[in-house]
Amino acid sequence: MPFGQLIIGPPGSGKSTYCNGMNQFLSAIGRKPSIINLDPANDHLPYDAALDIRDFTTLEDVMKEQNLGPNGGIIYALEQLDESTDLFIEQVKKLGSKEYLLIDCPGQVELFTHHGALAHIVKRLEKDLGVRLVVVNLIDSYYLSSASQYISVLLLALRTMLQFDLPHINVLSKIDLVSNYGPLPFKLDYYTEVQDLERIYPNVEQEMGPRFSRLTEAIGEVVTDFGLVDFQVLAVEDKKSMISLLSVIDKASGYLFGSTEIGGDSIWVDATRQGGYLGGPIDIHERWVEHKKEYDQAAVQERDDRMNDADEWNAELAAFEQETGIKATKWGE
Ligand SMILES: Nc1nc2c(ncn2[C@@H]2O[C@H](COP(=O)(O)OP(=O)(O)OP(=O)(O)O)[C@@H](O)[C@H]2O)c(=O)[nH]1
Ligand SMILES: [Mg+2]
């Protein structure tokens, strides 16, 4: 039974970059990742796709043939894929059951909130091939810079979680940039934990005026009542945050429990099962806001001290071992 991640999120939130980074990381720890590109507009892929929607149809062709603009074109292309899912499933099947799938999606938000095409395709993958997917929803941490946008993002994340009915991890992407957007009224953990939303209502009112107070509170109540939304943080170049995120994704997918027949990284899996690194020992506010400069400098220094990417991964995994006392697979082992 293959495992995988469905990588979604609004336009420009970092999906394709993440697929590339996660692909490298998974390869480094001995898994066998394959990337599937489902974005018909993705004409400059930063990775080698094992399967590409553009081999079936491209956005340029759809726009020309159907006389559509780019947004309508992407939706149309996904609808076409949905109608010929059998062919798509056959292609995925050929990748083999030991592959770990990374599925890169277009950024059209309606595909995650109410349009059925993507959700149908994913259901078929689950049903026909037994793929166990985790939705990784990347949301640009830029939205933390505005209290009202943060509330909108919570609603979007909740709606998306209900749409796919799969294990779901929300991620504030590009967290390395968050300190550039000016001081935040709350610590980073406040935004990731999604607790005590009433504390942020005055900030929304300050931005929007009293007109939206009732609406803000109503959204806040819905989000709180469901109790589903929280966030991980990610800077794709920061290996610690990638390791920490993969631990959370593995836990959500149940990868821990069937991994020996999937890839060669059972030692890594054992390590994460014991949970020592889950959530990470890192204080995210300190790392990404309060002392970001010092941490960045230390990371650059560490990088300079190392020879190459393999050394860098191995050093991070060694740090993981030291912190947890558990052995992790190294690059090339
Ligand atoms: N600083 C920083 N930039 C990032 C990070 N992840 C992605 N980016 C940048 O964000 C921009 C958009 O990234 P993409 O990976 O193309 O985003 P996408 O979600 O695939 O975009 P669409 O496919 O157009 O929806 C690029 O310039 C990336 O280099 C990150 O963790 N930190
Ligand atoms: Mg992309």
Automatic annotation (TrEMBL):
One of its GO terms (cellular component) is cytoplasm. It comes from the Eukaryota. InterPro entries: Gpn, Gpn2, P-loop_NTPase. Keywords: GTP-binding, Hydrolase, Nucleotide-binding. One of its GO terms (molecular function) is GTPase activity. SUPFAM superfamilies: P-loop containing nucleoside triphosphate hydrolases. Gene3D superfamilies: P-loop containing nucleotide triphosphate hydrolases. Belongs to the GPN-loop GTPase family. Binds to RNA polymerase II (RNAPII). Small GTPase required for proper localization of RNA polymerase II and III (RNAPII and RNAPIII). May act at an RNAP assembly step prior to nuclear import. This is GPN-loop GTPase 2.
